[in-house]
Amino acid sequence: MSGSKYQSFIESSTINGANAPYIEAYYEQFLENPESVDPVWRAYFRGVQGADGYADVPHSPVIERFEKLAREPRLVVAAESGFDAQAAEKQAGVLRLINYYRVRGHQAARLDPLGLAPPQNVPDLDPAFHGLTAADIDTVFNTGTLAAADRLPLKDIIRILKSVYTDTIGAEYMYITETAQKRWIQKRLETVAFQPKIATERKREVLKQLVAAEGIERYLHNKYVGQKRFSLEGGDALIPAMDEVLHACAERDVEEVVIGMAHRGRLNVLINVLGKSPKDLFAEFEGKYSADSLSRAGDVKYHMGFSTDVEVAGKRLHLVLAFNPSHLEIVNPVVEGSVKARQTRRLDEAGQRVVPVLIHGDAAFAGQGVVMETLQLSQSKGYATGGTVHIIVNNQIGFTTPNPIEATPNHEVRTSRYCTDLAKMLEAPVFHVNGDDPEAVVFVTRLAMDFRNEFHKDVIIDICCYRRWGHNEADEPSVTSPVMYEVVKKQTTTMQLYAARLEQEGTVSKEDAEALVRAYRDGLDRGENTARNTLGLVGNKYTVNWGNYLKGEWDTPTDTSVSRDMLSTLNTKLQTLPEGFTLHPRVQKIYEDRAKMSAGDLPMDWGFAETMAYATLANEGFNVRLSGQDVRRGTFFHRHATVHDYKNGTRYTPLRHLSTEKYRFVVHDTLLSEVGVLGFEYGYSTTDPDSLVIWEAQFGDFANGAQVLFDQFISSGFAKWGRLCGLVVFLPHGFEGQGPEHSSARLERYLQLCAENNQQVCVPSTPAQMFHMLRRQMKRSARLPLIVMTPKSLLRHPLSVSTLEDLTKGQFQPVIQEVEKLDAKKVTRIVFCSGKVYFDLAQAREKQKLDNVALVRIEQLYPFPREGYEAALKQFPKATEVLWCQEEPENQGAWYQIKHRLSVYLQPQQKLMYSTRKGAATTAVGYLKVHQKQQEEVVNEALTGGKLV
């Protein structure tokens, strides 16, 4: 700044290497409140900032300037500065001390109630580390940005810092780059040093919650000896934490809270948070179930979900606990999807009316990838839910391996210091808290809820506690963790510790506490819930009656045709782009072709038929939600649901403009995630039956990464939990010589999961089939998951096309018989197949001039279309050879899952044969020539040879 109007100020100031840290801290203070610094310094700092006024800037350039100035040989002390170099260094040390407590105080906090992970000795928190001595303890210093008086003695500053940052709360937030969020947390935490954390009446409520938390566990422990319940004992503070969540929601007029958690403490939460009847829980322990429950496969009690309405602080809240299998964190994206659907119904874009709460185990949170995928979704377009409150019940032991609050290098359970470190990628604040300090737990829970409300971001509460029993109540934990469990055996319960604390301060008497224990136990004896009474399922205008979808049958004939005029009208609207919008030349050609298809001048391709399915459904009042890693354009350049201006990159989605309803059609390109996104879409689909929800894998084999969702939710959710779901999954499938990774969608895996009409597996071979299949999914009254083997090369195959009449008069055909005029008396062989191989068979048959072979496509492999199959057999009464042909190896594809269905309806004179690639350990070969040779062999064998079953 040589020659500037500040030159004389610089030359007469004490800017040097000794006190540059103080000036940096002074600059921080200026950023928060410019009026709080000296006018001369204020003018200087504004000059440092430049013309942008008070906007925060990276401090590194500022620090570099200070260091540069410090190297100049001008060390003239200004008479008006009021301090010397030594005083400046002391002041800088105080400000550094404050900063280090904020950054590293959590390492010295008393977090472990067992005392097995004692607070660390952090050198940075020692005043001597910053040049401060006992002689400075009564010296008054500027407190900088500390939420306290502007000037305080050092001893008071240290007392505040220890109280806030190294007591039973360890706050991690200084990695957050948004200054406003850091300042907000600092103010909320540091101001607490001067006031009680919770009010007296709330303390009594917290004690009551702890009595309930401990009471239900002891009651079950004594009444149902040895039965699994996955006790919460040791993590009892979760119950008052959840109660605080509900109170915070009620105060903000939240309407629904959706909770996801694994089985640890689940029964406790069901009883004491959601208000499930103890009588119903006891019946489950005793094996007494309703007739409706016995009509399904069912599930163990600590996997079951629950929903009800409760009254909290005079407000009605709808509470939902999501069903969850033993795959722990897999419920995370499912909850988020369900929340998103509920928010969409309310047009609740900010997430103010529906709040997600996820309760985790420490080992699972750190170890399972679905946690990261769900966190990564939290701020992405189409998936944000206004911030999730995460509560970790950190009992320091995953299964049998001790899992300390602060992991050491090379520990078995994780690499990161804390189980929560994953959250730092979101810059989500983390509040570690000692579970044996219930007031601190309640305080940080309210803090977390307020943060979520203020900034619409995820926030983490890490309740550091312990597990009193083993992984389940039949387990003996001291076998693998003898040291820990020797301490646990002697540990006084959280309720007893807190009751003694309140008794000592005079808030409650010993008799009061004992009365609460008796009252809760007596209520359980009567089968009554004294912790929380529910209102039952009251419902509101957003409630969905899923009973309407239990009555429908999957095979009910459904009219899915659409008039020609309607198709033309809708396509005209879709072709209308904003004025001046320039399409890419290749996309322009696609649009021109679609105009011809709409007029009947060109056969329809897959992209047109699929778009028309969405358009007609949206026009009829259904919502459509399509997601995947490249679904706007389509992995194979066929969809173009969103188009881009070729000149300026502006995006436009024509299907969104068919209706004024905001969410009538939405399409989202997602992050590179399978399990996270599919779980989200499953949760969305189970919450909104009137939305066609589709997830498309970039290639079919990518769904491997989400196999848990297919196994535990999509295929079995209704059998276990009675949860209906209309989710559609697109899995591109077909053998084109692209190698083992992008040929097979593993059709056999989905067929293996089929039973009891639980889901549909379809392989459409024409655009019209795709059109009618998607419309049928929404037009009929049943809701079943739909797994679709979608095409790749077929998208542009000259034979795989349809006409307008196929849409205006047709419907989905589970079985497509021959369209050629074959002489039925000449047909001796019927070849059944699915998908792309049909066209290879048809071309080869024509080339070889075979008139004795009929080709029949089975487009719906499950539920198996028995009537259509029998009709095809009867069409050719002279046929003695019935053959199944598939591109996939013998041990894959549909063959092993379908051969028994093919054989059961054969006539005595008919024999069943098959043609496949030979069994293989991989899905396909990696060499194009080998692939082509194999394909030719499969096709020729199907037409003229075949292997006998």
From TrEMBL:
Pfam family, one: 2-oxogl_dehyd_N
Keyword check for Oxidoreductase: yes
Listed GO MF terms: oxoglutarate dehydrogenase (succinyl-transferring) activity; thiamine pyrophosphate binding
Assigned keywords, A-Z: Oxidoreductase, Thiamine pyrophosphate
A cellular component annotation (GO) from this entry: cytosol
Cofactor: thiamine diphosphate
Domain of life: Bacteria
Swiss-Prot/TrEMBL GO biological process terms: tricarboxylic acid cycle
InterPro entries: 2-oxogl_dehyd_N (IPR032106), 2oxoglutarate_DH_E1 (IPR011603), DH_E1 (IPR001017), KGD_C_sf (IPR042179), ODO-1/KGD_C (IPR031717), THDP-binding (IPR029061), Transketolase-like_Pyr-bd (IPR005475)
Enzyme Commission (EC) number: 1.2.4.2
UniProt entry tagged with the keyword Oxidoreductase: yes
Residues in Transketolase-like pyrimidine-binding domain copies: 604-797
Job of this protein: E1 component of the 2-oxoglutarate dehydrogenase (OGDH) complex which catalyzes the decarboxylation of 2-oxoglutarate, the first step in the conversion of 2-oxoglutarate to succinyl-CoA and CO(2).
UniProt family annotation: Belongs to the alpha-ketoglutarate dehydrogenase family.
UniProt-recorded name of the protein: 2-oxoglutarate dehydrogenase E1 component
Source species: Stenotrophobium rhamnosiphilum
Gene: sucA
